[in-house]
UniProtKB/TrEMBL annotation:
<protein>
    <recommendedName>
        <fullName>SIS domain-containing protein</fullName>
    </recommendedName>
</protein>
<feature type="domain" description="SIS">
    <location>
        <begin position="26"/>
        <end position="174"/>
    </location>
</feature>
<dbReference type="InterPro" id="IPR035490">
    <property type="entry name" value="GlmS/FrlB_SIS"/>
</dbReference>
<feature type="domain" description="SIS">
    <location>
        <begin position="190"/>
        <end position="321"/>
    </location>
</feature>
<dbReference type="GO" id="GO:0097367">
    <property type="term" value="F:carbohydrate derivative binding"/>
</dbReference>
<dbReference type="InterPro" id="IPR035466">
    <property type="entry name" value="GlmS/AgaS_SIS"/>
</dbReference>
<dbReference type="InterPro" id="IPR046348">
    <property type="entry name" value="SIS_dom_sf"/>
</dbReference>
<dbReference type="InterPro" id="IPR001347">
    <property type="entry name" value="SIS_dom"/>
</dbReference>
<dbReference type="Pfam" id="PF01380">
    <property type="entry name" value="SIS"/>
</dbReference>
<dbReference type="GO" id="GO:1901135">
    <property type="term" value="P:carbohydrate derivative metabolic process"/>
</dbReference>
<keyword id="KW-0677">Repeat</keyword>
Length: 336
């Protein structure tokens, strides 16, 4: 897990150097016929990545995005109506029948279909009208790391080209260097603070909420810790009743409009006696895990999740677990 996470800077650099025509063609089609809405289709870590895409599309392009549960198609046989829309499926393996079936149904319902997928010969790649290769290479660890980061970088590239966002495109070119710096972050404070914990909440907001969800999953599958993710707004609508003295919280605070609120709530919980670990750029007041700021605030989540992956691998080992082989799990999951 740690080795594959550390390879992310090289993976992203290689990804950025390839498939320019595929990205440009998709961007041109979306500008020529702007979709009224977008649906995403994914499971697990890929679904968390899809949440990042949703925030980018909604905040940068003003197009509403919804996550489509595959069971709406595969179990409930819903008659979808998506004329002129865009359906995006995300998967490392491209093997799960429900994701493939849902994307095919979206195409039959009138949507343009695209797949962001790592395995190019997979059923999902074959089902999509447009395929964007993740170029993450083989991923041996059951817990996804480099493929998740590759998904986010590919999504940022799609949105930058679709919206002709030169600043974001330029920032992407500089991202591998910052990812490499992020891989050197001191994760000791996080590992030390959480080594004896059995539960925690993970908070984020906006584009950073996707990495809060991803971190909560990694705590469960690699560390045996019951973690749940909430936006910093939603946690105040009920879940905060769980928080008492020494209750652990991990807060991701990338730069952007949500950062001030994340820091404020972290400070409030800390003042009430909770054990708060704040992840953010160096110099952020109260930061516990300092991660280098990326070339663009929308790319901060990629750097922060990379540092977290290394922390999670170390935490799992400190708890006597093998992060590469979580119990009861397998790399390719096929659901209906």
């Amino acid at each position: 897990m740690a080795e594959e996470a550390r390879s992310a800077p090289e993976i992203v650099a290689q990804q950025l150097a390839q498939d320019e025509d595929a990205y440009r063609e998709l961007g041109a089609r979306l500008r020529a016929a702007p979709p009224p809405s977008v649906v995403t289709i994914a499971r697990g870590s890929s679904d968390h990545a899809a949440g990042y895409l949703a925030y980018l599309v909604m905040t940068r392009l003003g197009c509403p995005v919804a996550s489509l549960p595959p069971s709406v198609v595969t179990l409930y046989r819903a008659p979808l109506r998506l004329p002129g829309g865009l359906a995006v499926a995300v998967s490392q393996s491209g093997q799960s029948p429900d994701v493939v079936g849902a994307l095919s149904a979206c195409g039959a319902a009138g949507a343009m279909t695209a797949a962001l997928v790592n395995q190019l010969g997979s059923p999902l790649a074959q089902a999509a009208a447009t395929t964007i290769p993740l170029r993450a290479g083989p991923e041996r660890s059951v817990a996804a790391t480099k493929s998740f980061i590759a998904s986010l970088s590919a999504m940022a590239r799609v949105v930058a080209i679709w919206g002709e966002d030169a600043a974001l495109l330029d920032a992407l070119q500089a991202l591998p260097e910052t990812l490499a710096a992020a891989s050197e972050s001191d994760v000791g404070p996080l590992v030390g603070a959480l080594s004896g914990e059995e539960r925690l909440l993970v908070l984020g907001r906006g584009p950073g909420f996707s990495i809060a969800l991803e971190a909560a999953l990694k705590f469960k599958e690699t560390c045996g810790v019951h973690a749940e993710a909430f936006t910093v707004a939603e946690v105040q609508h009920g879940p905060m009743a769980l928080i008492d003295e020494r209750f652990p919280l991990l807060v991701f605070a990338p730069r952007g409009p949500a950062q001030a609120g994340l820091v404020r709530v972290a400070e409030e919980f800390r003042a009430q006696g909770a054990k708060v670990i704040l992840v953010g750029p160096a110099g952020l007041p109260g930061v516990d895990l300092a991660v280098p700021a990326s070339p663009h605030e929308l790319l901060d989540p990629l750097c922060q999740i990379l540092a977290f992956y290394l922390a999670a691998a170390a935490l799992a080992e400190a708890r006597g677990l093998d992060p590469d082989a979580p119990r009861r799990l397998k790399k390719v999951t096929k659901t209906l």
